[in-house]
């Protein structure tokens, strides 16, 4: 057993070094930065970074716009994530059925939007939503999709368009791993296509659905590209519209210490939501 430790460490070491350099070190640096503040001697004095303890966190927890942005993305996630994953599941089940011909073409077609960079997709959809530029003037002329009432859901449509195919492929891959003997037994018991999908396929791909849900929760709280682009199209999107946009805007002032504190709190919120969802699903599976 001792002799095996050397080769094992040899294979693990590259991952460990990269993990420490590009994940643990930035987190540690952000925490360190969040504990400092900038002080000046007089109005035009030289800026000096000094230890500030939890002062930046006090500002974070008393920052109304930041917590409004947290609530906004939570509302976004409550609506958008189930819709997106529901569509992804439906497409995966459709591809796995015998109803679709040319499955390779449709797999690629559904995945193509994910290959489009988020910024490019947001610009493209921004033009489609703009009343003066959109080819769909019958809709955009009557409904302002970039107004304060609709812009959040316009961004939700962009995110759904991008990530439905990505999530569909994860679920579809899980469907392909189901043994054919299970389907044969279901057919022998007289189960039709809908019954098989509901009673066999969906329960067996539930781990993949949970995985995509966790990814979606993390992505929702990290929403940045879409609101950053939509600021150029709509005055309803402010510099604090989403938590990540708040971090970006704060660091652009620049106030790196406060931005680091925002980032740490956002990371903790993301971890709590993700692990909370995992615990909830595990408890449901145990029952």
From TrEMBL:
Domain named ABC transmembrane type-1: residues: 70-277
Keywords: Cell membrane, Membrane, Transmembrane, Transmembrane helix, Transport
Record flagged with keyword Transmembrane helix: yes
InterPro entries according to UniProt: MetI-like, MetI-like_sf, UgpAE/MalFG_permease
SUPFAM superfamilies: MetI-like
Lipid bilayer topology: Multi-pass membrane protein
Transmembrane segments: 7-31, 73-96, 108-130, 150-178, 204-225, 258-278
The protein, known as: Sugar ABC transporter permease
Subcellular locations according to the entry: Cell membrane
Domain of life: Bacteria
Pfam families documented for this protein: BPD_transp_1 (PF00528)
Family per record: Belongs to the binding-protein-dependent transport system permease family.
Main location: membrane
Lineage, opening ranks: Bacteria, Bacillati, Actinomycetota, Actinomycetes, Micromonosporales
Species name: Actinoplanes couchii
